[in-house]
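Thread title: Can someone regenerate the structure for this chain?

I was given the following input by a collaborator and told the matching structure tokens would be attached. They weren't. Posting the sequence so someone can regenerate them.
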Amino acid sequence: MTLINWHYQLTGTDLSGLQVKLCGAQRCAELEGGSGTTHALAHLDAGEMLYMVFGVAGRGALPPGLRVLSSDVMVNYQNLKTPPPRGF
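Best answer:
Regenerated them for you:
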């Protein structure tokens, strides 16, 4: 992986203390805001499963009634195992 784009949408707007992380098998990256990009998980294998973790500082779980409506992750990657094609 080289660059990861994310977007998520939650119900409600009172999100004081909300913490969101994008995680792979071995490490996580803090996400700032409902959408953006990160290089924090660069060099992970493009086939590795990623997941978002939502929580509230000091409480852990999301408050009742606050739900994740949608979440999207788009991964840009470079195949380092195959040599680049040769020019004509």
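Strands lie at 3-10, 18-23, 28-31, 35-38, 51-56, 68-76.
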